[in-house]
Every structure is written in structure tokens, then in C-alpha cells.
């Protein structure tokens, strides 16, 4: 396996107030992956991104970007990183092409009109190259932020809430654009409040809470390990208790005796599913009027993880 593009070891950050924003973070990011960092407000996501991008000075620990120590070789390390912040912070009176070219120059890159054109075309901004930022829609302004972050050809791109404040259609366009960047070889770390966004795109998921990284796992493994399938069975007639022959089944009964809830893990669902239960209910002469199923989403798992630590 190739060396990670980002390696964080024992990272801590304590502010003068005494607040510990980061508590010993260990994390490796693989080349070419999309990594989603999830966590509630105040969990430490922005502090972690700021530390990697040189905006926050860590209290302890090390950060290596493509093998470079971010503290000793900060200029070279930072040149390999692109950051798309949440805020639309750019010169509203400047043109699209000029603001992207300026961002490239900030990292010591020589003027390269062809490189700027390539970035603008990739983000469907070429036709707007002469427009002032203030004339653009919110979605186009966000594209400009991404273009600015890509202007110096970074290997690692941070997207902090990339689709915040955009409508559903534009959010889908953003997702397609991010996947395209990954296909072009850019490693992407994104934070998001739209957990559907992480479920759609991420290869791996990290969950941070109260300054600690509580989980890092491939998305598929996480959904398989912590995901659940829940079936709600509405009976034709109420029962007082779950019959003895169902004692070993993961069933719960409602107070009115009309609803059974059957809960199994994702792995169990693949092995036996609902068919055996339906057959068993039929054999026991228990008629039912409806059967509804729900499979855990990444959001369900995230809420369970964070609420379990509250």
C-alpha cells in the first residue's frame, strides 16, 4: 500500500481558555479517496482542518502532508493542499478569471492562462470568466471557491460544507463535480451536515465528537456492522404477549398489542431476511394487515453514535 497523502499523529489543540478542541487525533488519509469527516457542531472538525491547512497552531502532535512535516516544511506542505471554506470570502468586484489566477500566484506558481482555463472549464465556469463575482449566483460563487482552491494544482482538497446553502439540484451537481475531481486524482476530505452527501460519495467515514476521533471505517463496513433492518408488523388482532415459540426471535410488542417490531443487523438481514418470520407468523395463525421495513442510513448510525456519547 502506498504511503498516505496525509498522516496525523497525536494531534492536540488546547486554547488559552483551557478548552481542548482536539484530543490526540490519529488519522491517515489514503491517496485518491474521498474521506467524509462527520461530527456535531463544536466537535472539532473546523479546528482539525485549520491545523492541517496552517490556520490553527496545534498544541502537540505531528502532521505530514505527502511525507512533508507541516511544521518544519510548512510552505511546501501547504502548497499541496487546497481549501474550500464555508464562507464565500472573495473579492466581489474582481472577475472570475482574475481571482482564480491570483490564488494561483499566492502559492508561488507562475502565471499560466492555460491552467486557469483548464480549472474554469472543469467547473463549468469558463463562460463566466469575465463576470464579476458579485454578478454570480450562490452556486456559481461556490464553484469559484473550488476553482480558487484548485488553481495551484493541489493533491489534497478540503471541502468544508461544500453544498451548504445550495438547492437540491445544485447539490447533486456539486456531488458529480466532486466525484469527477476524485477521478482526476485529487484526494478529497469533506465535512458535511448533509449525511446523505457522505453516504453518496465517501469511501471512508470518520466521526469526531468532543475533540476525539471515535470512529474511522470504510463506509460499506460501517453500514454493514452498525446498520439495522427494522420491520414493523401491524397485526389483524391484538395479542397480549409474544407467543412462546417466538421467544428466540428479536421481536418487541407495542403497548396496544397490535404491532410487532422485528430488528436485525444488516448482516443478519442478508442471511435470513424477513421471509422466515412471515412463514412463522403464518404457521402460528397470526394474521397481519401490513408490513413496513426500514434499513438504517448513515444518518441513523451517526445519530446513535453521537447520542450514545452524550
Automatic annotation (TrEMBL):
Molecular-function GO terms, alphabetical: ATP binding
Annotated ABC transporter domain residues: 6-235
Domain of life: Bacteria
Pfam families referenced in this protein's UniProt entry, alphabetically: ABC_tran
Keywords per UniProt: ATP-binding, Nucleotide-binding, Transport
Database matches in Gene3D superfamilies: P-loop containing nucleotide triphosphate hydrolases
InterPro entries membership: AAA+_ATPase, ABC_transporter-like_ATP-bd, ABC_transporter-like_CS, ABC_transporter_ATP-binding, P-loop_NTPase
Name the record gives this protein: ABC-2 type transport system ATP-binding protein
Amino acid at each position: 500500500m502506498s504511503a498516505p497523502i496525509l498522516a496525523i499523529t497525536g494531534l492536540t489543540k488546547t486554547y488559552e481558555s483551557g478548552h481542548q478542541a482536539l484530543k490526540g487525533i490519529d488519522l491517515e488519509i489514503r491517496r485518491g479517496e474521498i474521506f467524509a469527516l462527520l461530527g456535531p457542531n463544536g466537535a472539532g472538525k473546523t479546528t482539525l482542518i485549520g491545523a492541517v491547512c496552517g490556520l490553527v497552531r496545534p498544541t502537540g502532535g505531528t502532521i505530514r502532508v505527502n511525507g512533508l512535516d507541516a511544521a518544519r516544511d510548512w510552505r511546501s506542505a501547504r502548497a499541496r493542499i487546497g481549501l474550500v471554506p464555508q464562507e464565500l470570502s472573495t473579492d466581489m468586484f474582481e472577475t472570475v478569471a482574475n481571482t482564480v489566477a491570483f490564488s494561483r500566484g499566492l502559492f508561488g506558481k507562475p502565471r499560466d492562462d492555460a491552467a486557469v482555463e483548464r480549472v474554469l472549464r472543469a467547473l463549468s465556469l469558463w463562460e463566466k470568466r469575465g463576470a464579476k463575482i458579485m454578478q454570480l449566483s450562490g452556486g456559481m460563487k461556490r464553484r469559484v471557491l473550488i476553482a480558487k482552491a484548485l488553481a495551484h494544482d493541489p493533491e489534497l482538497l478540503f471541502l468544508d460544507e461544500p453544498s451548504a446553502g445550495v438547492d437540491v439540484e445544485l447539490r447533486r451537481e456539486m456531488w458529480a463535480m466532486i466525484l469527477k475531481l476524485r477521478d482526476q486524482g485529487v484526494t478529497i476530505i469533506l465535512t458535511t451536515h448533509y449525511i446523505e452527501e457522505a453516504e453518496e460519495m465517501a469511501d471512508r467515514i470518520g466521526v469526531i465528537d468532543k475533540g476525539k476521533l471515535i470512529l474511522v471505517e470504510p463506509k460499506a463496513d460501517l453500514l454493514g456492522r452498525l446498520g439495522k433492518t427494522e420491520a414493523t408488523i401491524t397485526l389483524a388482532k391484538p395479542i397480549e404477549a409474544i407467543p412462546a415459540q417466538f421467544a428466540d426471535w428479536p421481536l418487541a410488542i407495542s403497548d396496544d398489542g397490535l404491532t410487532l417490531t422485528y430488528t436485525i443487523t444488516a448482516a443478519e438481514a442478508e442471511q435470513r431476511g424477513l421471509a422466515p418470520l412471515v412463514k412463522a407468523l403464518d404457521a402460528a395463525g397470526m394474521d397481519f394487515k401490513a408490513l413496513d421495513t426500514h434499513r438504517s442510513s448513515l444518518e441513523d448510525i451517526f445519530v446513535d453514535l453521537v447520542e450514545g456519547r452524550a
